[in-house]
Specification:
2 domains; rod-shaped; nine-stranded mixed β-sheet; Rossmann fold; binds magnesium ion; 621 residues; binds guanosine-5'-diphosphate
Length: 621
């Protein structure tokens, strides 16, 4: 079985699972390891890589790989699909024929590093294919010990530091490729790896070119394979790749695999490692697959935890959306009735100062109280200015308008005129206060509608129209009530005994003030106690007394009108009209959901479903 087949069978289920979670941002912590291949030059790195990936890479003697190559393989869901893309510098070339890969890589290397040089600039090759495993391979330049002509003196160091950069990453599986025909113990690559991956946990040793092993050194090679000489936690494998001639002959893959197998079976020394499953490319593939599965399995508990967290988050988010209308149209009427009842109940609760369900903690009564207090203050101020003003005005009146009357005869009409003038001035502020409160109530109603009918734009729209209409209606009713009230106030009336009591009270207050030596009103100071003055004083007492009665009456009456019309009746009217709405409009239209909310809810639901499925699968894996 090739790597891609093995991969399909063993790793794919995990990959699919992780893939299915990718849209939720789960895959981050479960990155698959990249497989980096390092070794001395011409040790067979590219050959091994090619055997694993199935992608033909430049191979040969001398330094062939002169830039690091990242080969990113991606599984395609389409049948018989192959597409490549090579990226380097700012060049991107699409590849449609796999046979072009080798040439294009050579070109890229030449462009990056010149004909002989090296570079640590990365060539990126992406292969998307029906039978590609989702894996990333990294082919690195081989370590050279002696520079050839035209190469910089420190080329060895350059390459080593480049290799280090790639294999230091914790998520990289390192394949150290060592040919059997050299002194394995002195291999640079193994020494390097030892410094970076101390215990060899991430490193797998690959011995190549067993067919070229020096006679007499076979036992030493076998010792290496048995992990007796340079210990690597993952151990060693031995493979035979194609030699140059076989490549030129284009030996088919299955034939090459068969030949490799026969080679090991027939080899007097390497027969044992073969039997122990430590030889051939297919076994290497198996081993790598196992490594990948292990790697993923290690991160599964973490994945499970992540999924659970996301499930909980999804649930919380779902809870935030209402459940939507029932699927059965038979139940729509009940559903709508409940919705509308909930809303109108909230509106009524709002206007009587009870807790509303849909929007917690709205209390319009504190605002109302302030408004009504302000109204009372308005009245008090008006009374004060009135009191201050009348003494002067009465005096002026006396001077300008008194006719044939003897002093002291200021007629009742004058008394009325003063009061009417003053009381009339209160009408406007009363109405504007009522309107202010009406605006506030509309705002609160709309807020309630929004939170109750958030998901149903048509219903919300109709409700808003209703609220607006009711506002206009109740406002004009209240306005005419207030106007009537002020018209009535022009009649100047109160119960006799109420008036007498107030008059006496005012007089007592005044006497008290005088006996305490409080400064007397101006007219008293400027004039002697003439008859005229006595009359003026008397009139002033009357005016003040009546005005305070009227003012007290209005202090209650105006808020009562507002509370009755703008609050109570508005809510009642809203309830009536909302119920009529159900009769007059198509239930389908009213319950038509906000498109986006519908989609969002469905998304959340399907996400929830997928996460739960993933969790189930995870437990089974
Ligand atoms: P790299 O420089 O490490 O990438 O090595 P290559 O993969 O380019 O291989 C160098 C040469 O060794 C090529 O000509 C390969 O065909 C040849 N080669 C690779 N593996 C084997 C093997 O197992 N046996 C033989 N005889 N030749 C091999
Ligand atoms: Mg190479």
């Amino acid at each position: 079985m090739s790597l891609s087949e093995q991969y399909e069978a063993k790793v794919r289920p995990y990959i699919d699972l992780i893939d299915s979670l990718r849209v939720f941002g789960v895959e981050k912590d479960i990155a698959l390891p990249a497989i980096a291949v390092i070794g001395d030059q011409s040790s067979g790195k590219s050959s091994v890589l090619e055997a694993l990936s199935g992608v033909a890479l430049p191979r040969g003697s001398g330094i062939v790989t002169r830039c690091p190559l990242e080969l990113k393989m991606k599984k395609s869901r389409q049948r018989d699909f192959w597409h490549g893309k090579i990226k380097y510098k700012d060049i991107v070339i699409d590849i449609t024929d796999p046979a072009d890969v080798e040439r294009l890589i050579r070109n890229a290397q030449n462009e990056i590093a010149g004909a002989l040089g090296m570079s640590d600039e990365l060539i990126n090759l992406e292969v998307t294919s029906t039978n590609a495993p989702d894996l990333t391979f990294i082919d690195l330049p081989g370590i050279v010990r002696v520079p050839v002509k035209g190469q910089p003196e420190d080329i060895g160091e350059q390459i080593k530091s480049l290799i280090k950069k790639f294999i230091t990453k914790q998520d990289t599986i390192i394949l150290v490729v060592v040919p059997c025909n050299v002194d394995i113990t002195t291999t640079e690559a193994l020494k390097m790896v030892h410094k970076i991956d101390l215990t060899g946990e991430r490193t797998l040793g690959i011995l190549t070119k067993p067919d070229l092993v020096d006679k007499g050194t076979e036992d030493e090679v076998v010792s290496v394979i048995n992990n007796d000489i340079i210990f690597l936690a993952k151990g060693y494998m031995i493979v035979r790749c194609q030699e140059q001639q076989e490549i030129l002959d284009r030996t088919p893959l299955y034939e090459a695999i068969e030949m490799e197998k026969i080679f090991f079976i027939e080899h007097p020394h390497f027969r044992m490692p073969y039997k122990e499953g430590k030889a051939t490319i297919p076994k290497l593939v198996e081993k790598l697959t196992l490594e990948l599965v292990l790697h993923i399995e290690k991160s599964l508990p973490q994945l499970k935890e992540q999924i659970q967290v996301m499930l909980a988050e999804t649930q919380t988010e779902l809870d935030r959306y209402n459940s939507g209308p029932p699927t059965d149209p038979e139940q729509w009427m009940d559903f709508l009735t409940d919705k509308i009842t909930a809303f109108t109940q909230d509106a009524i609760n709002l206007t009587i100062g009870e807790e509303t369900k849909s929007v917690p903690h709205v209390n319009i009564f504190s605002t109302l109280r302030t408004q009504f207090n302000d109204w009372k203050t308005d009245l008090d101020i008006s009374e004060m200015t009135f009191n201050k003003g009348i003494e002067k005005e009465v005096k002026e009146y006396e001077e300008k308008y008194r006719g044939r009357e003897l002093p002291g005869f200021i007629n009742y009409k004058t008394f009325e005129m003063f009061l009417k003038d003053q009381i009339k001035q209160l009408e406007k502020p009363a109405i504007s206060r009522m309107k202010e409160i009406s605006v506030l109530i509309r705002k609160e109603f709309i807020q309630l509608a929004q939170s109750n009918f958030m998901d149903f734009p048509n219903l919300l729209k109709m409700t808003k129209i209703k609220i607006e209409n009711i506002k206009q209606l109740m406002e004009s009713e209240a306005e005419s009530m207030l106007k009537t009230q002020f018209k009535m106030e022009l009649m100047i009336y109160t119960q006799d005994n109420v008036y007498t009591n107030t008059l006496n009270m005012h007089r007592e207050e005044e006497d008290e003030r005088q006996s305490h030596g409080v400064a007397l009103p101006r007219c008293n100071r400027l004039y002697n106690h003439s008859d005229t003055e006595a009359t003026l004083e008397e009139l002033t007492h009357h005016l003040k007394s009546y005005y305070s009665i009227a003012s007290n009456r209005l202090a209650d009456q105006v808020p009562l009108v507002i509370k009755y019309m703008v609050l109570q009746e508005s809510a009642v009217q809203l309830q009536r009209e909302m119920l009529q709405l159900m009769k007059n409009y198509n239930i389908n239209d009213l319950l038509e959901e906000d498109y986006e909310i519908n989609i969002k809810r469905n998304n959340l639901k399907s996400r929830q479903k997928r996460l739960m499925e993933a969790l189930d699968k995870l437990v089974l894996l």
